[in-house]
Structures are given as C-alpha cells and as structure tokens.
Amino acid sequence: MGATPLAQEGSRNIGPVILLGPPGAGKGTQAKRIAERYGIPQISTGDILRNNVQGGTELGVQAKAIMARGELVPDELVCNMVADRLRDQDCERGFILDGFPRTPAQAGWLDAFFEHQLVTGGEHCLPIVIRMDVDYNQLIRRITGRKTCTAPGQHIYNVYFQPPRVDNLCDIDGSTLVTRNDDREEVIRKRLQEYERQTRPVADYYQQKGRLISLNGDLPVDEVTQNMFYVIEHHP
Ligand code: AMP
C-alpha cells in the first residue's frame, strides 16, 4: 500500500475520521496525509481558530488570550465554528477532524450533529475514531521542535525529526517557518494538563461505545501513516 493517492479513493465516501491524541502527537501531519490521499478536507479547529485570531474576527478576539494561555476555547464557540465548516460542500464525501472533539461535551454535540444529519436525509455518519498514543518525552521533543510554515498550506516540520532542507524555510512553498505562540514551554505544560483533564475522557467516551482505535504514534511517521490508511480502508 503506497502513499500515493489512488484514483478510486478520490470518489468514494470516507470517514468521517476523528484524530485524537495529545498536542504534539502528530495529528496535523497525519491529517494532511489522509486529506491528500482520499481527497477530503482536514478540519483543524486549532488552524481555524488561529486564522480567526490572525484575521481579528470576533471569534478570534474571544479566543486569542485563552489560546495563548494553553486553555480550551469554550465548547459553544468551537461547536458553532465546526457546524459552519461541516456544512461546506467539500465535506460531503467525508472529512478529518483534527483537534475536535476535545471535551466530552463536544463529543456529545458531534454525535447529535451526525444524528440530525441522518434524520434530515443525510448519509449515515459513524466516525472512525483513531487515537495516537505517544510517549511523554517524545511528545515534548515533537512540540519543542515543531515549526510551521506561514503559507496557507501550514506545512509542519520538526527541527529534530523532519528538518526543512534550508533552515527556517518551507521546502514546499519557500515561506518562513515559525514556532507557534503556544509551543513555548510554560504553555505546553498547560496544554498537556488540559489534554489529561478534558480530552482523555473523550477517548473513554468513544471506547465505551466500542468505537476507539488506538495506534502507536511513536513509530516513524511513514509507518503511522500506513497504519492509518489500513484502519481507514478496513473500517466496516
Ligand atoms: P491545536 O492546534 O489543535 O493544538 O489547538 C491550539 C489551541 O486552540 C488549543 O490549545 C485550544 O486553545 C484551541 N482549540 C483547538 N481546538 C479546540 C477545541 N476543539 N476545543 C477548545 N479549544 C480548542
């Protein structure tokens, strides 16, 4: 099974895929690869919020300080934002949620959203829920080494594991690479605490429903991708 897009994968319905895992697990990197292979959009709530902060929208103004502290943005704001995005036409064949749901309330909201879609004549949406498990020390290196490009593709590098060919420049579009504002050490600690306190129970929520698939996120990035493709393609 290669990583090149398959013609038939661009036409059939996929997912939705939900990627769970702590900050730095590699959700963004894997979500981009899944998006490319199956021709479905990556919906990263973190990216959408950062775009709103950058654009100075009302949502961005509300979220900015909360994100800078490494805390979670209130459920209602995030759920409304996701609802808007999921109504876009490019989500019809499927989508990947990266960074959502992050609280049990968001998970409950999402189930109700899928249920409503079904009632209103949409497709049956039973998500493929994949959690990436990563060793704590590895996580810290992944977060502290992370650099993101400033172009719309938001390509991700890691100075330890996946350095760009030229220091601080994106291989793909040549834009400058930056460290995210919330990837600083004191904020990272808070984000990991928030994960333990609010997001780990989301995995328990899906586990109780028999829908959680755990993957070893410590493996080399290409192997993790292959395992993701396998899970997606063999999901009932
Ligand atoms: P991420 O890029 O997924 O690490 O998200 C960056 C930040 O955006 C988080 O630390 C939160 O402040 C906020 N955020 C992203 N997704 C959510 C979500 N589903 N619920 C609440 N806050 C979120």
Task: Report on the architecture of this protein.
The chain has 236 residues and is an alpha/beta fold. It has a domain at 6-40 and 93-135 and 199-234: 3-Layer(aba) Sandwich (Rossmann fold), CATH 3.40.50. 46% of the residues lie in helices and 13% in strands. The chain contains 8 helices and 8 strands; from the N terminus they run E-H-E-H-H-H-E-H-E-H-E-E-E-H-E-H. The chain has helices at residues 27-38, 45-55, 58-68, 75-86, 104-119, 136-144, 185-208, 221-233, and strands at residues 17-20, 42-44, 96-98, 128-133, 146-149, 156-158, 177-178, 212-216. The strands form 2 sheets. A 5-stranded parallel beta sheet has the order 2-3-1-4-8, sandwiched between helices. A 3-stranded antiparallel beta sheet has the order 6-5-7. It starts with 16 loop residues before the first strand and ends with a helix. The mean pLDDT is 90. The chain binds adenosine monophosphate. The site of adenosine monophosphate has 17 residues, from helix 2 and helix 3.
Write the layout of secondary structure elements.
Layout: E1 17-20, H1 27-38, E2 42-44, H2 45-55, H3 58-68, H4 75-86, E3 96-98, H5 104-119, E4 128-133, H6 136-144, E5 146-149, E6 156-158, E7 177-178, H7 185-208, E8 212-216, H8 221-233
Parallel strand pairs: 1-3, 1-4, 2-3, 4-8
Antiparallel strand pairs: 5-6, 5-7
